[in-house]
Design brief:
Blueprint (H helix, E strand, L loop, with lengths): L2 H12 L20 E5 L21 E6 L6 E18 L11 E6 L5 E6 L4 E4 L4 E9 L6 E11 L11 E5 L7 H21 L10 E7 L6 E4 L2 E5 H6 L5 H12 L8 H16 L18 H14 L4 H10 L6 H7 L3 H12 L2
Parallel strand pairs: 9-10, 10-12
Antiparallel strand pairs: 1-3, 2-8, 3-6, 3-7, 3-8, 4-5, 4-7, 11-12
Helix pairs in contact: 2-4, 4-5, 5-6
Amino acid sequence: MSRALAHIALFLVFSPAGAADPAPVPRTAAKPATAVAESSLATGSGQIRQFAFDGDPNTYFASEKNATKADHFTLTFDTPVPVKSVRVATGLPKGGAKLDAGVLEVSADGKAFEELAQFADGAAHGAPKGKVKAVRVRPTDDLKHPLVIREITVDADPRVAVFHHPIEFVVNVAAAPDMKEWANNAARVCERQYPMICEELASDGFAPLTVIQMTLRADYNGVAEAGGGRITGSVKYFKAHPDDVGAMVHETVHCVQMYRGRGNPGWLVEGVADYIRFFKYEATKPRPLPPERAKYDGSYRTSAAFLAFLADTYDPQIVRKLNAAMRAGKYKEDVWKDLTGKPVEDLGREWQKSLAK
């Protein structure tokens, strides 16, 4: 057989007729868009705004008072997305309070809205043309009942992430009305970060809060504090440091921690909160720490850096595991050896040595 024929024979052996082309490389799924739920109506009885877009038909948003034709409920995406369809179901799960006199509207820029569909028997459905930045439900008449939205369903590509950890911050700025815009912005930031915080500090059987009170007080001399689902901030401090929204994220972490009893070391409680703030929310380059001054139990940002070292060196989930132990009231010094094989003092010295490199 000639060399040319041999080449053809080899090709036939390794490339049989009808062989399929190589499978295409799958596309990386687009990052989902996120949303903010807002309304001109105050929330009633804990039926928060985010319940209207949480993927659960058994939860719902309900306004505190009867809605009027001047009111609205608006879901705004962080970026315009191609939307195939929007469905809205209104009314209480057991019946009643359905919206019939109303319209479903969409906006390409979050400012100018156009009608997509009218409500009938409490529901509306439409297929927008082009990208959508916001979806709005608006009564067209004064209602004799609160506005109740069971669920908004958005079919989009990339998808819009529903609120897996629904939360609403109730803002009180009676002591400083001029701080209303700042406080509302801080609340929206904390609401956006809430799912991340809940995931980072998840533990079996734990259900996070769905309502957190945020109050600014003129007679409070600290920065901020949290307890029992309430955050208190200093008017004086935040007027002087308006960019320090991260302080409110730190306090939001405390609202998620929900630790039992008083057996948890304070340095670790604050270290976890600052770990979430500086290494997950702000995610900035750690500030330099002189090894001789870096104490693992130095609390706040110093202890946060220690925890980040352990997450990088031993276990990416170590903060979650420490949090679970503290939340369950089972924290003991042995937990460090259980998680890393070393006592915390040895881990502290190892961290100090790493800072000298």
